[in-house]
């Protein structure tokens, strides 16, 4: 496996076929797991061991090790954020998504004024980090809209991230200068055979363009990039290994950029899509522990897709960022009766309730952990590059 990874580092990132990754995980032994749990840093081979069935009896030790590394790198803080959905129009037909173009749902795009009102509500509730989300429909919600909205909001929030359609490098640079600090773009599945089976129409069918997006984001100067795989489409162990390899490649190429990883599991949504593979809470926990041990510095995100019980149980064992008080329908904060959501929320608690749960575990919920001045300083470099 080391040889495979060395070849990846030398050039562009190419996901090894899953039929090759499977035997590599299957060949790991209990001895490999034990070696990974005492090593200061682990390589891809030992990461595969932590994802393997051989690691399952070691989950309590993995949890302890993951918690130690998290406290060493991040202290006892968990950053809180809220998603702000701007539009549920989408030009893609993705089998698993409530926004899929073929689903019959109420569609809308928030005006700039409506989006600003939603953001103001989140600010009043105490959020300082927000994630702007939309379906992938550039004709409905383009880069200029996002730039205008960011300029309206950047002085009210410590950071503004986006999760929208993949964009060009100059587009990302434009958004960075407007006040966007971070971009989340998930491959959904790294399995090249499954990918076309769930992306049935639209620009998202282009596997390679999506896979190259984080690199474009980094070259544009964004401070932080979020990646992830939608768990439930292919074998979670293989998805996890490919995800870790992608993260390591990005770190090798873009060492000045911060990275986060999310672990979304398929949730009920319009269209009634059922997971293609089973990923339970135990499997999700193993993946989170393994990735923390593999990369002690990466931010790990656990969203309100997961139920409160599981999220509370994971406090202090790897995740460093939680969403709270979330709504996945455009305009849903102003109007709780709004329909057209992307998926059903698992944790329905308010921000204050999530904060109480975090404090009860001896951790500090952080609503703001940096100032916009950092964005202003970095923006000067990007401005000079894209004059």
How would you characterize this protein structure?
- 42% of the residues lie in helices and 13% in strands.
- By secondary structure, the protein is an alpha/beta fold.
- The strands form two sheets. The protein has an eight-stranded parallel β-barrel. Strands 2-6 form a two-stranded antiparallel sheet.
- Helix 7 (143-153) links the parallel strand 3 and strand 4.
- The longest helix has 18 residues, at 236-253.
- It has a single domain (76-385), classed as Alpha-Beta Barrel (TIM Barrel), CATH 3.20.20.
- Helix 5 (59-74) crosses helix 13.
- The termini are far apart.
Gyration radius over CA: 20 Å
Give the C-level CATH assignment. Answer: Alpha Beta
Name given to the CATH architecture: Alpha-Beta Barrel
Secondary-structure-derived class: alpha/beta
Q: Into how many domains do the coordinates divide?
A: 1
- How would a textbook summarize the main sheet? 8 strands, parallel, barrel
Q: Assign the CATH superfamily.
A: Aldolase class I
Overall pLDDT metric: 94
Distance N to C terminus: 43 Å
The succession of helices and strands, N to C, reads: HHHHHEEHEHEHEHEHHEHEHEHEHEH
Number of helices: 16
């Amino acid at each position: 496996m080391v040889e495979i990874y060395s070849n990846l580092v030398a050039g562009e990132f190419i996901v090894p076929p899953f039929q090759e990754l499977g035997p590599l995980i299957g060949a790991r032994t209990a001895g490999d797991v034990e070696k990974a749990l005492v090593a200061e840093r682990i390589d891809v081979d030992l990461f595969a061991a932590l994802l393997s069935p051989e690691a399952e009896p070691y989950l309590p030790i993995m949890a302890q090790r993951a918690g130690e590394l998290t406290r060493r790198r991040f202290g006892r803080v968990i950053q809180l954020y809220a998603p702000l959905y701007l539009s549920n129009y989408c030009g893609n037909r993705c089998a698993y998504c409530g926004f899929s173009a073929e689903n019959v749902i109420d569609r809308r795009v928030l005006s700039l004024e409506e989006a600003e009102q939603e953001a103001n509500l989140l600010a009043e509730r105490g959020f300082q980090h927000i994630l702007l989300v939309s379906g992938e429909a550039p004709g409905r919600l383009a880069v200029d809209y996002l730039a205008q909205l960011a300029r309206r909001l950047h002085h009210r929030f410590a950071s503004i991230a986006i999760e929208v359609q993949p964009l060009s490098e100059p587009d990302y640079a434009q958004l960075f200068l407007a006040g966007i600090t971070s971009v989340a773009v998930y491959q959904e599945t790294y399995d090249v055979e499954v990918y076309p089976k769930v992306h049935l129409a639209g620009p998202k069918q282009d596997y390679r363009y999506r896979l190259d997006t984080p690199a474009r984001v980094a070259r544009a100067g964004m401070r932080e990039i979020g990646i992830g795989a939608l768990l439930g489409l292919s074998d979670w162990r293989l998805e996890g290994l490919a995800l870790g390899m992608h993260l390591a490649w990005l770190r090798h190429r873009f060492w000045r950029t911060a990275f986060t990883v999310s672990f979304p599991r398929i949730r009920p949504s319009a269209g009634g899509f059922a997971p293609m593979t089973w990923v339970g809470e135990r499997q999700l926990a193993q993946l989170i522990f393994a990735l923390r041990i593999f990369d002690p510095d990466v931010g790990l995100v656990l969203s309100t897709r997961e139920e409160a019980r599981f999220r509370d149980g994971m406090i202090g064992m790897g995740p460093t960022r939680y969403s709270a008080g979330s709504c996945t329908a455009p305009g849903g904060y102003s109007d709780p009766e709004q329909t057209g959501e992307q998926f059903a929320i698992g944790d329905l608690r308010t921000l204050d309730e999530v904060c109480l749960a975090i404090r009860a575990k001896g951790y500090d919920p952080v609503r703001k952990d940096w100032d916009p001045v950092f964005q202003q300083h970095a923006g000067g470099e990007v401005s000079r590059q894209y004059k």
